[in-house]
Structures are given as structure tokens and as C-alpha cells.
Amino acid sequence: MESVKIIVVGESGCGKTSFVRALLGCPTAEPPATLGCSVDVTLYQYAPSIEKQLFFIELWDISGASCYEDIRKMFYCNVDGIIFVYSLVDGKSSERAVNWIVEVLTKCEKVSKQPMLFDREEYVTEEKPLLVIGTNFDRKEDVPQNQICKRPVAANFNFYFDSESEIVFLNCRLRIMPRSTPENQIHRFFDRVIQKKFRLQRLFLYSPIVGTPSTSKSLLKKYHPPATITFRR
């Protein structure tokens, strides 16, 4: 069975592991810190085709901690899709969006502490499907409205967004409900990753109506325990 590799990146503590757990139907209020990289594999039914093929989705949850800056680049090989995670209540995690995507595309050894210049044309052959996840949506009432980082991240991604890129806002303490708008957005992203890697042709388009159920199906109930890649100093 074919598979796709999707990396999950973002600042340390922004909710990457919480997102993966929620996606797999096993939400955790306080997941342990990721040591190096944690890999989860799940089955996904790609439906924009007559055969409705099954694929393995590999979710590589990569630690954003500074102590792993020197080794993160080894996880960026053969990437098929990128999920960038940021916290709606942490401005820093959205402001450094550009830095993270540039690190992935260039396989830099470190994420710069300063804004990085990015030439989209230079990396056009490396362009990967992108999904942005805004976590802590349930905490937005606890933070002054002018500090909610919902729009700034979109501006930070203007250099990389295409017409199909989406931003999903989530409460990762809860499982992602079947046929919900967030699930549909995530399924569209999975479909784009599969289409791009295997050059599959879409036989129909998704309805532009928000909330319309996706025709692709995630078989996330068949959850595989994570294979954790750990590095110790």
C-alpha cells in the first residue's frame, strides 16, 4: 500500500502533539513533550477516484525545541506535505511561520531568530501542499481580542499560500468530529498531498459550500501507537 509523509512543525508547546492526538481520535489534555520526532501512521481512504484507494498517512510530529535544531533537518527528507501548527494565544508561534517553512524547504540546520528572506521562484520545484492549524481555539475567550492571532498568520504565509491552502482553527482537547468543517478541510489537504505525489486526477471538485461533507474518508479509528524517534544528548 502506498504512503505519504506529512511533517507537523511549529514552535515548541504550540499544540502539535495535541493536534495529532485529536486527529487520531485520542485527544489528550496535556500530552508529553516530543523527544526528537514522533511518528503516527493511519489509514486514509482517498475518494476522488472511482477505486477509492487506501493510503497510509505518516504524520511526523517534529519537536520545535531549540535543543533539536541541529538534527531536525534529517526529518525533512522526502516530505510530501507540510502542516504548520501555531497557537491562537501565542503571537510568537505565528510570527515565525515563514522561518519554519523556509527551514523545511531549504533543510536549514537552524531556524533563524530573525525574519528570513524567501524567494518563492527559487523553490517552486520544492513547493509542497500546506495546511495551517490554529490551536487553543477554546482559550480565545481568556485572551484580549487584540491578542488573538487569527489573521496575522495568514499574512505571514502570503509568500507560500496557493488558492487551495487553508487555515483550520481547533480545540485540540476534543476529537475532530466526523463530517465537521475542520475534518473536511483536513481531508482536502490529505487529498491534495496524495494527488501531488502520485499525480492522480481529480474526477470532481469539492463543493464550495462550507460544511459540505467530504467524500474522502479517514479511517482514523484504526489507530496505530506512535513510533517515537528519540535523541538524547
TrEMBL record:
One of its GO terms (molecular function) is GTP binding. Keywords: GTP-binding, Nucleotide-binding. Signal peptide: none annotated. This is Rab-like protein 3.
